Amino acid sequence: MTLFVSSEVMFFGGLFAAYFMLRGTAAEWPPPGSVETSLVLPVLLTVCLLASSVTVHAGRLGATIVLGLVFLAGQAYEYAELSHEGLAASTDVFATLFFTITGFHGLHVAAGLVMLTAVFLRRERYAGSAGGGPVEAVSYYWHFVDAVWVLVFLTLYVLR
After folding, report:
1. Is the dihedral of CA 82, 87, 90, 92 positive or negative?
2. 112 vs 25, 50, 76, CA distance in Å?
């Protein structure tokens, strides 16, 4: 899992590098005419994911799964609202990066939910694991996904 998360760090590092390179070369950021994103929903989604890090650390996988599902539902709602306001991946370079970064993060949350659900359904099998094991490996991945969201939130919503 450590090697896998390391490769994911490089993947998201490339996305953030592209964002900051394009932002740094733009005359104005975000480009004129970009839809303004609200902070209310992203703050709530951030609280959701941070709380899910607490629950996964405490071994409450069911609660973690619910919080992850709430996050994905909130992201889907935000996408629908932004689409209604006219923001699409093809709108401008900011929108392309916004949907690419948040979309890939959402896919990672979904993958984490699949892993969490698999471990949750087989939790009795792993109950005797002393250190390590699937539960700990999945929790590392989940903490990584949460940490990436903090960077996404700061980059796309706060430092915009």
Report:
1. negative
2. 35, 14, 17
Maximum Cα–Cα distance for the chain, whole Å? Answer: 58
Name the region of 59 (left: φ>0; alpha: ψ -120 to 50; beta: rest).
left
* CA separation for the pair 71, 45 (Å, rounded): 5
Query: Which of 60, 70, 56 is closest to 138 using CA atoms?
Result: 56
| pLDDT tens digits for range 86-122 | 889 998 999 999 999 999 999 999 999 999 999 999 8
Q: What one-character-per-residue DSSP string does 70-118 give?
A: HHHHHHHHHHHHHHHTT--TTS-HHHHHHHHHHHHHHHHHHHHHHHHHH
